[in-house]
Every structure is written in structure tokens, then in C-alpha cells.
């Protein structure tokens, strides 16, 4: 990695789960480097959704390195997720034809609810499947499946956690970490964001900022997908032996089912 930029640059790990991200520094110049980023990154940069892409280089071993401007920025706080700029950026993402066309060219196809439920059922451990709240959740998912219809497939981020939203010192908002991008029902992103961050009595106001009305159909779709995502998260934490986190999400699932 060092020889890409020359001797004047210092390169440090930038954290993250994959270990493929780095900070490059040369006096006041800083770049964010990543190994084997998706070609999707170039379109995200052109759309202004992630920090600007500076260059892309292919190494002799076939790896691709991308460099983006390093921003003086901070992650959004949970109580900032109700702001208009979050709603407007998510709307922009969901309405972007360049993003959708790029994912299609990459071979992505819409994630149908039937396929998501099948994935969920296949990944569940027997011990987790025996939990009463899991059984209740699966019953709900199976019962409501026929009513989960999507009129418009869009690009979904699929992990709209507040840690993935960056606000620059000049108040430019970005959504980063697109490894889980998919073509899906926008209710996947909307449900996750609303259930995690927005009091239910404020959903209608937030959705108006986003650009749509709160309807029974949308509420059902959001609840259906949030239950799926929560069960998958519980299983993921159990696989990683993160017992405390899995218990937290089990309790969250109980609250979602009751809502």
C-alpha cells in the first residue's frame, strides 16, 4: 500500500470490520483509502452521497485501491436522525436512477420478501427458533407475507445506523459503508430508521419530510422487514457469541411485535 503514494505519505489503518480501510497523510493532505471497494462507489461519489472519489488504481495482484477526500466530519447522534437533511438524503438515494442502474449492471436483482423469509428460516439455529418471541415473529411474517407488496424497487443501504451518517464541518451530509447495498423495498431502510430513532407519534411528520404519507400498507411493510432484520441481527450476534447484544435485540423484538 505504501508505494502507491510515495515516501512522503504515512498510511494508518482506519478501523472497520474488514481491515481494508486506511488513512493516508502527507502534511495537511489526507486521503481515505480502501481496498477492493465496489465499483458502485464511483456512482455514489458522482451523486454526492459519499465523500468525493479522487482516484482508483488497480494493483498487479488484481486488488483495486480507491482514494477519497478525508473529511473533517462527525457521525450523527441518535437524536439527530429526525432532521430534514436525513430524510431528504434518503429520499435522494431511493429515487436515484444512476444508483439503481449501476446495481443492475453489477448483477443485483430485487430482494423479494419470500426470499428474505426463506433466508431467515434457513439461518436460524434450533435453539433460537425455539424462543417464544421468535416463534411469534415467524408466525407473523408467514401470515402477512401475501400482503407485503412493493410497487417500486429502489437502492437500499440496509444499515442506516446513525454511525454511518457523516456530517462535515460545512454541513454536508453523507451516508457511508455501502457494502450491504441492495435493490429492495424502500420500507427496509425506512422501517429501520423509524423504529430505531423516531418516536412513533413523529413518524408521519418525518415521512412527510422524506416525501410520502404514512399509510397502513407502509406501516405493515416496515414492521415486516424490521422483524426480519432484527431476527437476522440476533442470529448474527449469537454466531459471534455476543450474548449481551443478542439479548438486547431479543427484547427489542418483543417490543416490535407488541407495537
TrEMBL record:
Tell me what this protein is called: Thiamine kinase-like enzyme
Cite the Aminoglycoside phosphotransferase domain residue spans from the record.
Answer: 14-219
Q: Which taxonomic lineage does the organism of this UniProt entry have?
A: Bacteria, Bacillati, Bacillota, Bacilli, Bacillales
What is the organism of origin for this protein? Peribacillus deserti
- A Pfam family found in this protein is APH
Amino acid at each position: 500500500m505504501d508505494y502507491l503514494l510515495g515516501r512522503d505519505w504515512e498510511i494508518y489503518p482506519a478501523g472497520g470490520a474488514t481491515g481494508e480501510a486506511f488513512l493516508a497523510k502527507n502534511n495537511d493532505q489526507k486521503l481515505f483509502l480502501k481496498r477492493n471497494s465496489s465499483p458502485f462507489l464511483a456512482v455514489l461519489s458522482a451523486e454526492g452521497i459519499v465523500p468525493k472519489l479522487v482516484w482508483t488504481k488497480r494493483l498487479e495482484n488484481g486488488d483495486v485501491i480507491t482514494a477519497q477526500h478525508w473529511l473533517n466530519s462527525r457521525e450523527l447522534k441518535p437524536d439527530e436522525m429526525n432532521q430534514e437533511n436525513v430524510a431528504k438524503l434518503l429520499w435522494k438515494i431511493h429515487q436515484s436512477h444512476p444508483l439503481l442502474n449501476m446495481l443492475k449492471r453489477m448483477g443485483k436483482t430485487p430482494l423479494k420478501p419470500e426470499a428474505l423469509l426463506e433466508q431467515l428460516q434457513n439461518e436460524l439455529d434450533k435453539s433460537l427458533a425455539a424462543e417464544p418471541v421468535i416463534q411469534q415473529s415467524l408466525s407473523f411474517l408467514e401470515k402477512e407475507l401475501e400482503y407485503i407488496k412493493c410497487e417500486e424497487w429502489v437502492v437500499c443501504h440496509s444499515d442506516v445506523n446513525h454511525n454511518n451518517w457523516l456530517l462535515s464541518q460545512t454541513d454536508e451530509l453523507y451516508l457511508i459503508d455501502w457494502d450491504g447495498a441492495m435493490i429492495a423495498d424502500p420500507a427496509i431502510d425506512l422501517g429501520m430508521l423509524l423504529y430505531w430513532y423516531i418516536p412513533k407519534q413523529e413518524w408521519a411528520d418525518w415521512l412527510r419530510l422524506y416525501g410520502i404519507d404514512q399509510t397502513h400498507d407502509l406501516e405493515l411493510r416496515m414492521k415486516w422487514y424490521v422483524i426480519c432484520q432484527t431476527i437476522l441481527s440476533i442470529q448474527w450476534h449469537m454466531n459471534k457469541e455476543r450474548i449481551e447484544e443478542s439479548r438486547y435485540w431479543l427484547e427489542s423484538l418483543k417490543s416490535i411485535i407488541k407495537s
